[in-house]
Design brief:
four-stranded mixed sheet; 21 strands; 3 domains; D-Maltodextrin-Binding Protein, domain 2; Dipeptide-binding Protein, domain 3; Dipeptide-binding Protein, domain 1; 27% helix; alpha+beta; five-stranded antiparallel sheet
Length: 545
């Protein structure tokens, strides 16, 4: 396998060597990882899944970016100013950022410099719902005037807001807001999804969909680490092996440099019972792990206008609360996930966000006495006459569902497990066809508003992400007040009040907060992890072989 990779990449890179490389060692450093999911587009307007986001992040840049500490840093914008009323964002652009070379840039195809007008074009494109679902992220820009985005000159880009929205700068770090060249997009049309052109540390080389994706080093990239121009790697290769065991075996053989996520790792093979890397493997690999801004949960569809709710006991709040108290989350995380994650015994908002405060938002923990009390209040003492409830999930979470099923049965709560394909279940949840389901939410941007927006009444599915159809006027008032609140302390207090309301009304069962887990070969340096689980390869080094 290794020899095959080397042969392919020597051929690919022969044509991409610059004159400055002549006479140097021809051995190239290629970072290889496997994607068990599907990359569907290399257009940043479609960067809605982790699979797409990770590859798009290697090709493109935006105005700003998020560092590993979740602070917003300059990218193409060297600096910015925000008006006191939060209605005007002015970005000052670097003058040394160029698009990748492309045949659609004049006769020589040399990549041209990025200007403010490129951002006007890129952002206006996102206002079209046929192009991207990022339109919801631009709700508060002043698009009614047609001048939400303005190029004052080549170096100055301005965004005009109709309402202040404090998380907006963080939203701009999302890959949707990457800059793209109009002439290439319009020349390629639909093919831009597979023939991208950006400004990033790596340039697109080839894509055999479902098989292999290759990027090569951008020798003109604008960022440096000290005196060294980024990136350090010569290329990135993404394979698409769907089988977990096959993918993991390739990693153990050294044919992959990284595997990411608990679901991609044979945890029994390489980890101890408490989630540490076994000594026998630590000589060849290292584990990167930290909290992930993700909440895994069970959701109840509670819209009583729908027949599946009218005829279900799950419409009763006391029963939903009983289910929340009815199983031990801490044991679940310890034994089923080897402590990779944290039991969700606080609110829906995960730790790692500045508003998180488990002393102020009280969630659910295992409490048999409360279960019995709440079942009595719900009209089902000791579970007597309680109809069987059905939890819809996927094969991947069957063991977790069986654990909850077993613990709830001790209180007379009978639960059936309905296993569906992920795509089928997603469609069913979005279109109100199931009323008890397993789901997760990870941060699009590092602000609690992103999690709480799932329960705002104007975000009801299928148009929005409020899959439970939770509706609470008090929650909505707090949510709307938080949108324009410029004082962080006040806004965080609104968030905590919303989170507590949510927990008390129990439209969800928070299960656990996620954990970023990556296994990396020891010859890889500079690869970091972060609470957003973003993959950045521009500072990664790998020993030449």
């Amino acid at each position: 396998m290794k020899n095959c990779f080397v042969y392919i990449f020597l051929a690919l890179f022969a044509a991409s060597c610059s004159s400055s490389d002549e006479g140097k060692n021809d051995t190239r450093t290629v970072f290889k990882y496997n994607e068990m999911g599907a990359v569907t587009s290399l257009d940043p307007a479609k960067a809605s899944s982790f699979e797409n986001i990770w590859v798009v992040n290697q090709i493109y840049n935006g105005l700003v970016e998020m560092n590993d500490s979740l602070s917003v840093e300059p990218s193409i914008a060297s600096s910015w100013d925000i008006s006191e009323d939060g209605l005007t964002y002015k970005f000052h652009l670097r003058e040394n950022v160029f698009f990748h070379d492309n045949e659609h840039f004049g006769e020589e195809g040399k990549g041209r410099r990025v200007t403010a007008s490129d951002f006007v074009y890129s952002f206006n494109r996102l206002l079209d719902p046929k192009v991207s679902n990022a339109t919801t992220l631009l709700t508060y820009v002043n698009s009614e005037t047609g001048k939400a985005f303005e190029a004052i000159d080549d170096n100055t880009f301005v965004i005009h807001m109709r309402q202040a929205f404090t998380p907006f700068l963080g939203i701009l770090t999302m890959k949707y807001f990457s800059v793209i060249p109009k002439e290439v997009v319009e020349a390629e049309g639909e093919e831009f999804r597979r023939k991208p052109c950006g400004t990033g540390p790596f340039k697109f080389k080839m894509w055999e969909e479902g098989s292999k994706l290759v990027f090569v080093k951008n020798p003109e990239y604008f960022e440096y680490l000290g005196s060294e121009r980024l990136p350090f790697l010569d290329a990135v290769s993404v394979s698409f092996i769907r089988d977990r065991e096959s993918s993991f075996l390739n990693f153990l053989k050294g044919d992959l440099d990284m595997v990411s996520g608990v679901d991609a790792i044979n945890t029994d093979e390489v980890l101890t019972a408490d989630g540490k890397l076994k000594d026998s493997y630590s000589r060849n690999m290292k584990m990167l792990t930290q909290p992930f801004l993700e909440t895994n949960y069970l959701g109840f569809f509670i819209d009583e206008q729908k027949s599946i709710v009218k005829n279900s006991p799950l419409k009763i709040k006391a029963l939903r609360q009983a289910i929340n108290y009815g199983f031990d989350r801490k044991k679940m995380v310890k034994y089923l996930r080897k402590n990779l994650g944290q039991a969700a015994t606080s609110g829906f908002v995960p730790p790692g966000l500045p508003s998180f405060d488990e002393s102020k938002v009280k969630g659910y923990d295992y409490n048999p006495d409360k279960v019995k009390e709440l079942l009595f209040l719900a009209g089902y003492p000791d579970g007597k006459n309680l109809p069987e409830i059905t939890l819809s999930t996927t094969e991947q979470y069957l063991e977790l569902a069986e654990y909850i099923q077993s613990q709830l049965s001790e209180f007379g709560i009978k639960m059936k497990i309905d296993i569906q394909k992920a795509s089928v279940l997603f469609e069913a949840i979005a279109n109100q066809k199931v009323n008890f389901f397993r789901k997760s939410w990870n941060a699009d941007y590092p602000d609690a508003e992103n999690f709480l927006s799932l329960f705002y009444s104007k975000n009801w599915s299928p148009k929005g992400f409020n899959y439970t159809h939770y509706q609470n006027p008090q929650f909505d008032i707090l949510y709307e007040k938080s949108q324009s609140e410029l004082n962080d302390s006040t806004r965080y207090e609104y968030y905590r009040q919303m989170d507590q309301l949510l927990i008390d009304n129990a439209p969800v069962v928070p299960l656990y907060y996620g954990q970023v887990v990556r296994l990396v070969q020891n010859d890889v340096e500079g690869l970091t992890s972060n609470p957003m689980n973003m993959l950045s390869l521009k500072r990664v080094k790998k020993s030449k072989s």
